[in-house]
Design brief:
Layout: E1 2-3, H1 22-40, E2 53-55, H2 63-70, E3 82-83, E4 96-100, H3 107-117, E5 121-124, H4 138-142, E6 148-152, H5 161-175, H6 191-208, H7 223-231, E7 244-246
Parallel strand pairs: 1-2, 2-7, 3-6, 4-5
Antiparallel strand pairs: 4-6
Helix pairs in contact: 1-6, 3-6
């Protein structure tokens, strides 16, 4: 899943008034489309189905995902889990991948296996104090019990190291995040985004090819909700219909 909205325009600004949202989150939608195309061209479909979901009004308070959680296309109790993409890596390939909320669910194992196939490590959020896990679309499904994983860009640039990755992340936050300056630039290096998409695709495919039910880790605030859901489930699975747009 990814969100295709941004903040519209601001007529009070001089000059460029358009919040393009190129990284946040047109890049996530581009990744969603690529993964949808890859899924559609598999020589053999997995035994479990996948939903690729583009949501509206994330920037206005997760309204699109709240709507979907309240009006799901498939019962949430039969949805095995999900992966949220909120901005892709545009500064180069990394030796790591960040998972916001690492340790919360069994979905970590699928990302870890996909990362290992690329000889990459899985790292927790370096800014956990900012509560990013509770600020993007996956949260509305998580609090309804569906295990959700939220991977983000890595920091350990393969050529320039961790310091460079942190510098570029801080530069984006200070200069372009939720600003009209979040625009596409020909200088983007999407090699890291491509590797991340391959990783996400493999993780999702592994879930779709499995009959396992990943759950929340013991102690998670979402665990009880999921256990109650699963107690009333018929056991049918709907996992991670191609690129359907949903909003309030």
């Amino acid at each position: 899943m990814a969100h295709w909205d941004h903040l519209g325009t601001d007529p009070k600004l001089e000059g460029d008034q358009i919040y393009n949202g190129a990284l946040d989150n047109a890049s996530g939608i581009a990744a969603l489309r690529e993964i949808a195309e890859a899924s559609a061209t598999l020589p053999q479909a997995p035994p479990q189905s996948a939903l690729l979901l583009a949501l509206t009004a994330e920037e206005q308070g997760l309204l699109g995902s709240l709507y979907y959680a309240s009006h799901p296309l498939f019962p949430l109790k039969d949805t095995v889990g999900g992966l949220n993409m909120d901005g892709m890596n545009n500064v180069g390939s990394t030796r790591d991948i960040t998972v916001v909320g690492l340790g919360m669910s069994d979905l970590d194992d699928y990302i870890a296996a996909a990362a290992a196939a690329q000889e990459r490590s899985v790292e927790g959020d370096r800014e956990a104090e900012k509560g990013y896990y509770f600020r993007s679309d996956h949260f509305e499904l998580a609090r309804e019990g569906v295990p959700m994983i939220y991977p983000s860009s890595g920091y350990d640039d393969r050529e320039k190291g961790v310091g460079y990755g942190l510098e570029k992340a801080n530069e984006y936050t200070s200069d372009r995040y939720h600003r009209v300056t979040d625009e596409y630039n020909l200088s983007w290096d999407v090699s890291g985004a491509l590797k991340d998409m391959e990783m996400f695709f493999k993780a999702g495919l592994d879930v779709a090819n499995s009959d396992a039910w990943p759950n929340w880790k013991e102690g998670s605030e979402f665990e009880q909700k999921r256990d109650e859901q699963r107690a009333g489930s018929c056991g049918w699975r709907q996992t991670w219909l191609i690129a359907r747009f949903v909003g309030p």
